[in-house]
Write a structure and sequence with these properties.
Layout lengths: L2 H8 L2 E10 L2 E10 L6 E10 L5 E13 L4 E9 L5 E4 L2 E2 L1
Antiparallel strand pairs: 1-2, 2-5, 3-4, 3-6, 3-7
C-alpha cells in the first residue's frame, strides 16, 4: 500500500461524541469508526471537549488501545461531568 492509499484510508476514520443530560450532570459518550473496507488502523487518540467559551471540559489521550478493523465501530469511552460541551477535537496518530 502506498502513502496516498494509506492517507485515503486514514481519512475514513471518525470519532463522534454526544452529551446526554442526566439531571444535574451529563453523560458524555464517544465512539470511533473505521469506514475503510481494507485498512486496519492502530492509533493513539487525544480527545478533548470544549464548552461554549472554548474552555476545556475534559481531555484524555487513549494510548495503545485503539485498534479498529475495517468497517468496525465501537464505543471509545463514557464519563459523567457537570458541564456539557459544544465541540470536540481529536487526532489519530497512526502507529
Amino acid at each position: 500500500m502506498n502513502k496516498s492509499e494509506v492517507r485515503e484510508d486514514i481519512d475514513r476514520l471518525a470519532v463522534a461524541a454526544g452529551a446526554f443530560s442526566d439531571d444535574d450532570s451529563y453523560d458524555i459518550r464517544a465512539y470511533v469508526g473505521n469506514y475503510s473496507s481494507s485498512y486496519t488502523f492502530q492509533s493513539s487518540l487525544p480527545f478533548t471537549t470544549y464548552d461554549a467559551q472554548g474552555q476545556v471540559v475534559h481531555e484524555k489521550s487513549y494510548d495503545n488501545v485503539i485498534i479498529i478493523a475495517p468497517g468496525e465501530k465501537k464505543k471509545l469511552d463514557s464519563y459523567y461531568t457537570s458541564n456539557t460541551f459544544v465541540t470536540y477535537r481529536y487526532t489519530f496518530t497512526a502507529r
